[in-house]
Amino acid sequence: MGLAPHRVGREPRVGHKCGATFSQPSALQKVNKWDGHRGKHPVELHALCGHGASPIYSQPLRGNDRYTQVNFDPTLKTIADVGLHYKMHITSRHNPKLKQAIALRSRKAREAASATLVDGVREVERAHEAGAIVQQLFICDELIADDERALLESIASRGDCERLWLDRELFAKLAYGDRYDGAVGMVATNTRGLDSLDLPERPLVVVVDGIEKPGNLGAILRTADGAGADGLIVADPVIDLWNPNTIRASVGTVFHRRVVVSNAQTARDWLIARGLAIFAAMPAASESYTEANFTNGGAIVLGNEAEGLGPIWQHAAVTPINLPMLCIADSLNVSVTAGILMYEARRQLSQSTQRA
User: Fold this and answer.
1) FRET label pair with 246: which of 24, 152, 213, 236, CA 20 to 30 Å apart?
2) 108: Cβ–Cβ under 8 A, 6 or more apart, which residues?
3) Helix locations, 176-237, DSSP H
């Protein structure tokens, strides 16, 4: 028989689940036994810190969702602690936590929840290292390597992070695209402004104005990280910075503190006020990118894929530069242009440092 539901403030009863007995008075668990009929006798696990304490972990199960005990520890105190000792296996597509996570593929849902999905162990790790809060980890054991499993356990142990296990079929509904890494994180988003940038004496700053494609923005973020840019300003964003495609293409670098959002005019005036040389990529410019002087740092400005840069960047303090197009095409992909300009700037900065 199943046990009677425990009410907060009353003595919890000891029960059995998956062959485990819970009998430690400092952290008693109550489990209602699932009787096989969907929607009847919902299963819950309450981990309680002492008698009468409020439940710190309570998840109604759906369908055949189940908990399995890994190692019992009477000192459980947080959701993360419980997650290290119990596996919650989600096997129903109707599970509310799974449905909430899948909904984050929508920009509206991401903005409402101030959270996004991060596909891949490496990307989740980088988000975590950048200070982002990993709220939940959805894990598919079939797709996780041993070293990745240890890394995910480390991430979960450092915060109030809930771990949930999915079979391969359900994981495919949550993971994005064709590449499955075995882990998807629900991560809190925190969009930063210009005031969070702390630039060095000779900074390299990149501005992307009105970029429309998540893959392009993510690729530019990844390149900026590789070239050691000190700041990346996403001006007048058309797309959501936290689009899972952007995050995946950036390999998680979008979470770094040097990535900020602003409107274009404010960004331009902010750069001018700091005395930075501003070089704007424009196909019709007469000056080649090789003539731009980055030895004292500067800002590289890149525009929308179809329209390029708007009139805000036609300013006396802004120098237009171009990349020569020698055959049929009249322009490069914006992420390719970004890579060429950033590494040219980095080359000049490195050489001037060596001479000094």
Assistant:
1) 152
2) none
3) 214-226
Helix (H, G, I), strand (E, B) or coil at 138: strand
Nearest to 29 by CA among 57, 1, 65: 57
Q: Rounded CA gap, 183 and 161, in Å?
A: 13
| Cβ atoms 252, 155 nearer than 8 A | no
Tell me the pLDDT tens digit for each residue of 316-351.
999 999 999 888 988 889 999 999 999 999 999 999
**Position 73: which residue type?**
D
The residues with which 45 forms a beta bridge, in sequence order, are: 31
pLDDT tens digits, 175-226? 876 666 889 999 999 999 999 999 999 999 999 999 999 999 999 999 999 9
Q: Which residue has the higher pLDDT, 325 or 289?
A: 289
Give which of 176, 177, 153 is closest to 165, Cα–Cα: 153
CA 22 to centroid of chain Cα atoms: 37
End-to-end CA distance of the chain, in Å? 80
Closest to 175 in 3D by CA, of 203, 143, 135? 143
Give per-residue pLDDT as tens, 76-122.
444 444 444 467 888 888 999 999 999 999 999 999 999 999 999 99
- The residues with which 239 forms a beta bridge, in sequence order, are none
Q: Are strands 259-262 and 231-235 parallel, antiparallel or unpaired?
A: parallel
CB 243, CB 117: distance < 8 Å: no
CA quadruple 235, 240, 242, 243: dihedral sign: negative
Neighbours of 71 (CB within 10 A): 8
Across the chain, what does the average pLDDT equal? 79
**Strands annotated E in 156-230:** 162-166, 183-188, 204-209
Could you give the 3-state DSSP secondary structure of residue 213?
A: coil
Q: How confident is the model at residue 51 (pLDDT cuts 50, 70, 90)?
A: very low
Q: Does 216 or 355 have the greater pLDDT score?
A: 216
In the chain, the amino acid numbered 246 is T
Helices (runs of H) and strands (runs of E) counted in the chain: 10, 16
Residue 69 gets the label, from left (phi > 0), alpha (psi -120 to 50) or beta, of: beta
Q: What is the pTM of this model?
A: 0.76
